[in-house]
TrEMBL record, chain A:
Gene Ontology MF term list: transferase activity
Record's keyword annotation contains Transferase: yes
Protein name as annotated: Acetoin dehydrogenase dihydrolipoyllysine-residue acetyltransferase subunit
Keyword annotations from UniProtKB, A to Z: Lipoyl, Transferase
PANTHER family to which the protein is assigned, alphabetical: ALPHA/BETA-HYDROLASES SUPERFAMILY PROTEIN, LIPASE-RELATED
InterPro entries reported in the protein's UniProt record: 2-oxoA_DH_lipoyl-BS, AB_hydrolase_1, AB_hydrolase_fold, Biotin_lipoyl, Single_hybrid_motif
Automatic annotation (TrEMBL), chain B:
Protein's organism: Azospirillum cavernae
Keywords: Oxidoreductase
Gene Ontology terms for molecular function: oxidoreductase activity
Signal peptide from the UniProt entry: none
One Pfam family named in its UniProt record: Transketolase_C
Membrane spanning stretches: none
Protein name: Alpha-ketoacid dehydrogenase subunit beta
Amino acid sequence: MSNERIKPIVMPKWGLSMSEGKVTGWLKRPGDHVALGDDLLEVETDKITNVVEAGESGVLRRVLGENDTVYPVKALIAVLADPDVSDDEIDAFIAGFVVPAADADADAADATPRYLFAETAAGTIRYATRGEGGPAVLLVHGFGGDLDNWLFSIDALAESATVYALDLPGHGQSTKSVADPSLSGLSAAVLAFMDHVGLAKAHFIGHSMGGAVSMRTALDAPDRVASLSLIASAGLGREIDHGYIQGFVGATSRRDLKPVLETLFADRGLVSRSLIDDLLKYKRLDGVEDALTAISSAMFADGAQSSVLTDLIAAAKTPILVVWGEEDRVIPAAHANALGDAARVAVIPNAGHMVQMEASSKVNALLKDHIGKAA
Amino acid sequence: MSRKISMKTAINEALDLEMRRDPTVIVMGEDIVGGTGANGEDDAWGGVLGVTKGLYAKHGDRLMDTPLSESAYIGAAVGAAACGLRPVAELMFMDFMGVCFDQIFNQAAKFRYMFGGKAQTPVVIRGMVGAGFRAAAQHSQMLTPLFTHIPGLKVVCPSNAYDAKGLLIQSIRDNDPVIFCEHKNLYGLECDVPAESYAIPFGEANILRDGDDVTIVSYGLTVHRALEAATALAKDRIEAEVIDLRTLSPIDWDTIIESVERTGRLVVVDEAHPRCNLATDIAAFVGQNAFGALKAGAQMVTGPHTPVPFSPSLEDLYVPSAEAIAAAVRRTLSPTGSRSHGIAA
């Protein structure tokens, strides 16, 4: 049923693997006026809790999603409408609302697999791609991460771009054999991936170590990098929390890994059991410990970052955006200003090292703006 | 890359990967190739339920059909382990342990200790456990407590395909004798399992569901019954934390105690008979070490003190049900909860 004055609010789909979400708290009450971009409610997925923002404005006429209740993606959880819409019309809308069948979703997922695998010169690389047309965007995760670190970014960016996210060698479900664990080696793997999927040039968005890999690529192959977005990036200073790196490499149990992962977020409560389980499943794979040890020895030996690219990248012609979480406990937010006037800088309060997850709406808006201007 | 496979396939894959990785890994047991006297290539049964099917074609004579003599081939496996191989011996039904228990508890479990640490015994003894398969009293028991009782043995009982693969790989790489218990009614259960090799460390329980009201501890098949019970209880706003032990020896006391200190209530579910089992063991340990945290007496849900019945309707009543587990949880929440006898049918 369609009714332009009545706007459904549905359980969002964040990223590739979300099938359901739990309503954990409403930030607006029935009867409240809601403006575009207002925080509406908090939703907890098996990965993380995040705020759902209003995509349209109106009066919050009905709240259907009950607290602590799980709903499938696209289920109706609230209704926005103009004040003059009658209750009967809203009741009829709710009664007539059809949640898209899970089967239809599964068929769509079969048509576009959630994850793809590329056999590149650097070995098997797992990746995902979203969106069509517009500029090409490549997402590069950090040390110990994988492409799901872009859970809250990939679909938002894909609204106006063709987005690729990959697992670096030694990470996620890509090859665990890392031929060259240096920045140049990982950068070469990224270029090999771009060659494989026929990507001549892309806007690079790099998080943490992925930022340093992106900078290295911009320096070594400037014609392949349209712009740089550096999120809590390595390579902009010497300091790094070496305890985090060592803790992450060494942890083998849930009990050891939990406090390490809590370092990543301003809100430690965001580290869910399933986030820890997913990382333990990755860390248990044969070859991962060796890969992480090799990369951390190459990049973070002696408790500091080995490669500082500040001067080189400031002199390059690439448009640069730097984003940091003010409460980053892994790489200090002070590094955000390392590039001076050579970069646009945004430091986001109440967010830690995983700022793209903790403040996804703000970060996505900054990224889209930067790519739009650089394109 | 991960895909959905059954626990049976996951076990087969673990054996295949470890045989490829380590030439000292061998597999032996009754009918694990093709049955005594039959040519494996022509008649590859792959064990009584086909768990080892296909391995003979890949690894040839590193798989060995043995005579129908558990004392002989389990003894041979233990001896081979002490001499440098890593045998995985299939006992078919763990109920047959009786005819080879000296080789297990008096030999394999004692070598490291009695030889002053100069010998190690990296043998894995796999076999089926549990009721619900219409296999009668001599092929249906949950004898895990008997193995857990013996110092020197490690005891594993996975509840799903992911854990089965990672725990079996860890069992093969482990330098001590491991008793690997496979619940026959879980063989068909599928879940996401990486194609790669991975090892799950022993002594780390898995938390399958978060909850603040009660801790349910279990292992093997009854983990799934506990999860069913937790889902039912959640409708009444009772949130149960469900802990899957994964390994019974070593056991992850820390995870149990930490959970009970938060929830204040404990229900332990063990398919084994009610006396001297994992439920009594855990209830006693928590009573001794976290008594102050308990708001009610620990509840135990177990099989009854009887042989496993052959009558299907009776056998269905034998294994702890989700309803019995939910009822035990409710007893911990009622004022008279601690006065139950705790031996639930």
